[in-house]
Fold Rab-GAP TBC domain-containing protein.
Amino acid sequence: MERLAGVLRAYSLYDPAVGYVQGLHMVAATLLLYCKDEEAFSLLVKLMKDYNLRSLYLPDMPGLHIRLYQFDRMVEELLPAVHVHLIRSGVTSSMYASQWFLTLFANKFPIPLVIRIFDVVIMTKDGIDNVLKFGIALMQKNERQILAKTKLEDLLFLLQENLCTVYQNELVKSPGSGIFGSGPEPTYRVDEFVNDALDIDLDASQLKLYETEYLEAANLQRVRKEEQESMKQSNITLQATVRRLEENLAQLNKEHIELANELISSKINLARLEDENEALQGTVADLKNIVDAQPAEVEARLKDEMTSLIEKATTMSVENQRLEDAMSEMEKEHIDLKMKYATEHERHDALVQKMENLKKSFNS
């Protein structure tokens, strides 16, 4: 365990972008079975870098998704019945094959098979692509058993746990093994397994085409997801707009009700004003009739008043003339009185003078 922890710690420092992820310890542990620590680390780096195992461990695992898609397309092409059966059963390759690619079958497969798989991956020109061959070989060898499984749990158990048993040799009891004995360890037809895998024709250009198909589909899915996110944001914006419009509509409805009430009041007032107008028109008509009937009466009354005024004016003119004549007489009399007063005043003054003179005479 210390050796394994040391290799994993060294790789996490060597490649911080990957660091330590689940599944990597199975690859490192398998290398440590037959290599020194330094050699195991070097082989791990080579597998990750030169054999592109690293892409399977990056965030979002882009390499793993590509490998699973390539595997699905190969199953569809080479084992169409199995492909249809898995789809109908609701089984995807990620449910059972992910660990094949992440650990190079080291997670649950017997050590003899795993060691040969590592040898083939490292030593042959197809490198990590050989994992696809081994996976297809297992599916071909188990085709009849896979098609026979109708229950989902049975099918998954076969795919996840028992695919390699088709290469297991029959167990032969030893004389000392009984009911409670441990029994012999199972052995496997490793060469047959490797030969079945290597006999599968793996076209690099076809794998590249599958990779392109996946990337285009993934890109399309990403675009659709972005469109969905954009639509979701648009929906949020539209919902906010709808809520705002609903609030505005509620306010408009309130204002509409108020205007409707005002309109009703206006109509009532208008009806009242129309009634009053009709009444006023009736009054005006009555007044007009009265006015139309009055000119003759007014004219006669004016004539009488004019005649009376003329008579009064004539009388006043005569009286005025009489008064003027009387005033002329009075003015004459006033002048005569003034003359008489002046004469009398002179006489008075003369008498006073005489008296003064007489007094002076007596006194002397």
Observations:
- The mean pLDDT is 89.
- The two ends are 190 Å apart (CA to CA).
- Residues 204-293 form the longest helix (90 residues).
- DSSP finds 13 helices and no strands in the chain.
